[in-house]
Amino acid sequence: MLLTDEQLNGLRGRLVVSAQAYPGEPMRDPRTMAQVAQSAVLGGAAAVRVQGLADIQHARSAVEVPVIGLFKDGHEGVFITPTLHHALAVAQAGAHIVALDGTRRDRPDGRSLSETIAVIHEKTGAMVMADCGSLDDALAAVDAGADVLGTTLAGYTVERPKTDGPDLELIEQIAAEDTGRMLIAEGRIHTPAQAASALSAGADSVVVGTAITHPTSITSWFVDALPTMD
Asked: How many Cβ atoms from other residues are within 10 Å of residue 200's Cβ?
C-alpha cells in the first residue's frame, strides 16, 4: 500500500524511531528489529526507520505505521541506499518511504539523484527521503524531486562540522527556505530535550535511533559516566 500525502502529514510534530543494529551484534536479526519497532510504536512512535531488506519486510508485517526503509552498503562515502538498484529493492521490500543518500556527491552507479528519484516514483510509487548533509544538499534534493528532507548526514560530510547533538543551525537554515517538503531532523538526538529543540528549530518531525533502540550505546553512556575505582 502506498503512502498518501495525508499519512505523511500525520508525522508532523511526532517521533520516528530508527530500529537498527550493527553487523555482528546480538540484536542483528530482522525478527528482533521488528519487535523493537513494535515496542517503539506501542510507546507512541508515528513511524519507524529500518535498515535491510529482511528488516523492512518484517517491520511491514509487525507494525501499521509508515516504514522508512534503507539499505546500507559499505561504511564510507555514499553508502545509504547508494544506487537505483538498492532503492528499488528497498521499495519492493515494502518500504513506504525510501531513504537514500541525498548529498550532491557522485553516486556509485553514476546516476544523478534526480534520475534515481524519478525512477523510484515511476516504478514503485514509493516516496523518497533524501538524507542531506547541508543546506545546499537539501535545496538540490528538492530540485531532484525528493518528498522528504532529512538532516541525517549533517556532520558526516566535509560541508559541516559534527555538532554535539543535533545540528540545530542546519535545521533552521532548511526550515527558513520554506521548501514545501517535510523536514525530518535526524542525527545525534539523544535526549527528549534535544528532540524538542529540533522541532523548535523548525523540523516537522524527529528521528531518534541510538538513544532508544541501541542498548550497547546506551549502556556505554552509563558506564562512562561512572567514576573509575582504583
From this structure: 11
- Check: CB of residue 88 under 8 Å from CB of residue 119: yes
Q: Compute the C-alpha angle 71/132/211, nearest 5°.
A: 70
**Grid cell at residue 228:** 573509575
- Which of 130, 135, 140 is CA-nearest to residue 160? 135
pLDDT tens-place string over residues 2-22:
999 999 999 999 999 999 999
CA distance 101 to 34: 24
Please give the Cα distance from 171 to 207 (Å, whole number).
Answer: 13
Residue that has been written with the C-alpha cell 542525527 in this structure = 187
| CA–CA gap between residue 116 and residue 30 (Å, rounded) | 27
Task: Select from 167, 111, 180 the least CA-distant residue to 135.
Answer: 167
Is the CB of residue 149 less than 8 Å from the CB of residue 173?
A: no
Question: Which 3 state secondary structure label does DSSP give 216?
Answer: helix
Residues near 102 by Cβ (< 8 Å), separated by ≥ 6?
113, 129, 130, 131, 132, 137, 138, 140, 141, 144, 146, 149, 150, 153
Sequence-distant (6+) residues with CB within 8 A of 224 are none
Task: Provide the whole-model pTM.
Answer: 0.97
CA 80 vs. chain centroid, Å, equals: 10
Q: What is the pLDDT of residues 164-208, one digit of tens each?
A: 999 999 999 999 999 999 999 999 999 999 999 999 999 999 999
Residue count of the chain, please give it.
230
